[in-house]
Every structure is written in structure tokens, then in C-alpha cells.
Write a sequence for this structure.
């Protein structure tokens, strides 16, 4: 079993839809959780950074962490064609341990 | 623009050769990280440096090595290249090893 599992998609939604992206993980020691967005031919761009369980909101983006279920989610409200990208979850045990990434979910938002 | 600069953007070479990838971190960032991204493995952590010293090692092959120089730029050296080394190589930097990492746009390495 891989440490971090992420459905690769592709996921295709109409403009304006609410998008839900998810990752599951096996290592209960993970405490720091991140979501990155990666456009084609670009590096990953940090979207959300959370510590431990709970929700964090930033504009149209909401990150949720459920440590009891070892499950994290990213919600995108009012999705736009410019949100079309690959979304990577990442996590680590502590501040000075390496990041472990999911393989990414490819999202297409259709106008 | 993340502020992390990687050169070259694309490198084409042959099996058995050696290449050097370069990374300039964001101004003020002391930590540099190297990752390899392939379709089947996703983003894999290779190695981390902090202020010139190696801090952590991931799935880095013995044929690969890296260093961070006094001006904080870093180089990743790949030798005895094999077809399977074809991938995107990313550099990321952060102010310290506990802070979020910011990625460059990568170097695409193609082995013919």
C-alpha cells in the first residue's frame, strides 16, 4: 500500500461546479498537509497548508483534514476554466521530514 | 512566478552521459530540495540541503549527487544516465526546513 493514495482522474466538470478532490494516507503520524496545483509544463504551486485536523478556507478553496479517517479533501467552489490543472496532495510527519506526495488528480473545468 | 529558477529547462542527452542541473532558490531561502517527477512514480523526494549542509535523503540513486554552494544555489549531478532517468527534475526552496516549499518550473531530462 502506498503511503498516499490519490485518484488520478481525469475529472471533468462544468464551469461553476463545486469540485471535490481527495487523498487517503496510511501513516497516522502525518501532521502537516498541503495541496499544490500544477499547470502543464510548470512546477507545483502551493495552494493550501494546514496543520493537524480541521478546515481551512482561502477564497474559493477549502481544505479539510480528517485524521481519524486518514483522509484529506480540497473543495473548489465556483470552478473556473483557469482551475484546470493537476492537483497534488502532500503531507509530512513533522517540519523537518520529507514531503510525501500523491500522484495528482487531473482536473478539467469546461466552459 | 515562485522565485525559484532552474536551468536548463530542457536537456537531451544519451545513455551513459553525465549532466548537471542548476537551481537558484528564492531570495532568503536557506533550504533547497530536489525532486524527480515521472508519470508512474509521481513526485519523489531526492535530497535536501540547508545552508550548505545535507539534511535529508530520499530515494536518490548512488549515481546522483547534489551540493549547495555558499551563495545557496544548488546543483544536482546525474551520471551514468539510463533511459529510466528520463523525468522532470524539480527544485524547491523554503526559508527553513519547517516552512512551505516553493517550486521552480523544473528541468525536463530526456535520455535517448
Amino acid at each position: 500500500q502506498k503511503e498516499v493514495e490519490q485518484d488520478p482522474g481525469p475529472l471533468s466538470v462544468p464551469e461553476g461546479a463545486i469540485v471535490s478532490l481527495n487523498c487517503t494516507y496510511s501513516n497516522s503520524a502525518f501532521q502537516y498537509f498541503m495541496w499544490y496545483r500544477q499547470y502543464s509544463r510548470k512546477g507545483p504551486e502551493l495552494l493550501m497548508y494546514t496543520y493537524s485536523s480541521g478546515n481551512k478556507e482561502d477564497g474559493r478553496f477549502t481544505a479539510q483534514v480528517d485524521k481519524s479517517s486518514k483522509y484529506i479533501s480540497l473543495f473548489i467552489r465556483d470552478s473556473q476554466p483557469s482551475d484546470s490543472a493537476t492537483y497534488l496532495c502532500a503531507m509530512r510527519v513533522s517540519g523537518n521530514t520529507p514531503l510525501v506526495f500523491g500522484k495528482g488528480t487531473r482536473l478539467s473545468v469546461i466552459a | 512566478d515562485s522565485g525559484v529558477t532552474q536551468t536548463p529547462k530542457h536537456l537531451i542527452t544519451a545513455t551513459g552521459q553525465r549532466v548537471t542541473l542548476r537551481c537558484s532558490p528564492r531570495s532568503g531561502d536557506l533550504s533547497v530540495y530536489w525532486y524527480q517527477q515521472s508519470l508512474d512514480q509521481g513526485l519523489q523526494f531526492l535530497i535536501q540541503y540547508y545552508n550548505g549542509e545535507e539534511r535529508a535523503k530520499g530515494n536518490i540513486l548512488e549515481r546522483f549527487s547534489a551540493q549547495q554552494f555558499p551563495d545557496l544555489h544548488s546543483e544536482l549531478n546525474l551520471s551514468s544516465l539510463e533511459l529510466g532517468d528520463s523525468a522532470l527534475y524539480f527544485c524547491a526552496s523554503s526559508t527553513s526546513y519547517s516552512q512551505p516549499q516553493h517550486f521552480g518550473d523544473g528541468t525536463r531530462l530526456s535520455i535517448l
Summary: Residues 8 and 64 of chain A are 19 Å apart (CA to CA).
